Amino acid sequence: MDIEKFVEAPGRDEKIKEVRKKIDELGIEYLYLQFVSVTGKIMGKGIPADHWEQVAKKGFQLVYGATMNLFLNRAGDYLGYGPEAAELVGIPEPETFMQLPWAPEIGRFYCTLFRNREEKVDPGAYLTSDCRGNLRRLHEEFTKKHGTKLRIGTEPEMMWLKFDENGKPKDGYSKPYCYHIDQFESLRPVSLQVIRYARKMGLDMIQGDHEDAPGQLELNWMFDDVLRNADRLTTYRQICAQVARENGIFACFMTKPFMGVSASGCHHNMSLWRGGEDEFVKCGNNPDDLPGMADNYMYVKGGENTFMPDTDDPQMPGTEGLKAIGGVVHHLQALTAIGCSTVNSYRRLWDTGFWAPVFSDWGFQNRTTGLRVSAPGRFEYRSVDSMVNPYLMGSTLLAAMDDGLENSLDPGKPEERNIYEAMEQGKEVKKLPMSLGEALDKLAASDVVQRGLPGEMYRLYDEYKRDEFARFMSTVTEWDNEMYMECLP
Fold this sequence. Notes:
GO biological process, one term: glutamine biosynthetic process
Organism: Roseovarius indicus
CATH class of the largest domain: Alpha Beta
CATH architecture of the largest domain: 2-Layer Sandwich
Cofactor: Mg(2+)
Shape: globular
Keywords: Ligase
Low-confidence stretches: none
Distance between the termini: 69 Å
CATH topology of the largest domain: Creatine Kinase, Chain A, domain 2
Structural class: alpha+beta
Family: Belongs to the glutamine synthetase family.
CATH superfamily of the largest domain: Glutamine synthetase/guanido kinase, catalytic domain
Radius of gyration: 23 Å
Number of strands: 19
Mean pLDDT: 91
Helix content: 25-40%
Largest sheet: 11 strands, mixed
């Protein structure tokens, strides 16, 4: 069984013992065992720390539907899995152990999910509704096939909001002035606390700024292996939620809470690397860093960036990079269903004038296209927003890149003009889907991108998001009433 191979992997027993030493040394009393749902929501269970060895070997059980948030569809039925479905088994990964800096009596793990050992079909197999486990396995397959690994750095914009008199999130905490240090300073207690917690949990924080929406910050960490970066983005979201609770404000990851100002994007900067090794390095020089696994944090170092230019043109990506990006450009419309995953995502694309890309094209320092070369050896995928599930985004990008490399797909010439001016001059450009329903149709037509959603994952994602779009289409909004209530006679 896959589950037995995973539990009995060489060296795992030693890691389990190391965690026990850390639990005892740090006074850990309780453990959070977490995984990530189809929509990116953090799910899981908690156990007393004295049961660590048992759960590390046998895991915990939880209903399959937890991977679908245990939400109901419009008909009142559970999405994805009914109450008659079996229970999954979650196995914690000892190398992901981390002490929570705001609750030092609690340790946290990421888990890999499996089918139950007693199931009649594929007992103990990897659960394909585990987006995190899927990404790890797809990345391993990609590396075995092409000899390269995907490294990603994300730019997670989000907004800090005040509560109104009814306890509902409403106005931004600061004014919508991009790059203004004074507005950045107004959120200093929040941003510095986020950075402190992030550093203690292994995020190598490198820069940040105030963006151009109310209360909007972007705090960045160093790029890394696609799976570790996705874990860090998930951790960052947890940190922001905790800091918001401590400060009596709201951490908003909704893509477009306000019209007329910028939405929150999550640009993915990506490159393929050959070689390089995982290394344990200390995150910064903060003497107050809380110890995680082995008192260190793992990063990938070294290797050859295959996206770097290989001609005299210092901007043009290398041959391998162009093929990989050719795959992304070719499948950009279907990928939009993953990168722009909610009904609200498309408010970002419709609200013109705020640099949100709506065209399937690429360029150099060109923010009017879906992709751009943000620096030599690095492509920035811009059609991604703050609600993205980074595990699904990573796995579908791998599928698109695999197609580009396998079939030598040409991304076309880079567009250096403003895309709107280029179109006025006669260029034909495909537009990205402009609604969640349209994007899901593009995904349904793409066998390639669906390879990044293996097993049950595509069925579950499509079901969840079709229901979400249907709920939107069957809702009367304030706009409907204002537009049509008194339009006749």
